[in-house]
Amino acid sequence: MKKVTIYTDGACSGNPGPGGWGAILLYKEMKKELSGAEGKTTNNRMELQAAISALDALKEPCQVAIYTDSAYLCNAFCKGWLTRWQQNGWRTSNKAEVENQDLWKLLVAHTRTHDITWNKVKGHSDNVNNNRCDALARNAIQSLKT
């Protein structure tokens, strides 16, 4: 399997509000940047969309290391939240319906195709790739305004 590194970030101008996402895919010496935006969304949806869009760009099953500054995204996989939500019929421990199920289900489908490890990075810090993803996401929001 090819080993791919992915960095992702999402941003929102207001929450909800116009949102954007950015992703960087790294494979050997290749680097691909992706971004997109939605008119009315939330920061959490943009964090999820960044990961989905990056994984969508892969043309074959890969071993993937995803780096995100989103505790929401990382903890869902690393702390077993996603497994419990599915076992509870997409309900949280408080019996509330899990938000963003449509996007979570797309991510779950990707876990069946790719061998994914999730890694939390500190946002707005010294991680060049995370900062670049943030800039891509914010630029995508600006593109909605022009």
3D architecture notes:
- The protein has 146 residues and is an alpha/beta fold.
- The chain has helices at residues 43-56, 71-78, 81-87, 101-113, 128-145; strands spanning 2-12, 17-27, 30-41, 62-68, 115-120.
- Helix content is 41%, strand content 32%.
- Strands 3-2-1-4-5 form a five-stranded mixed β-sheet.
- Helix 1 packs parallel to helix 4.
- The chain is globular, with a radius of gyration of 15 Å.
Beta percentage is 25-35%
Number of E strands: 5
Query: What is the helix/strand order?
Result: EEEHEHHHEH
Enumerate how many helices there are, as a single number: 5
Report the principal-axis shape. Answer: globular
Classification by helices and strands: alpha/beta
CA(first)-CA(last) distance: 41 Å
List key phrases describing it.
single chain; about 150 residues; alpha/beta; five-stranded mixed β-sheet
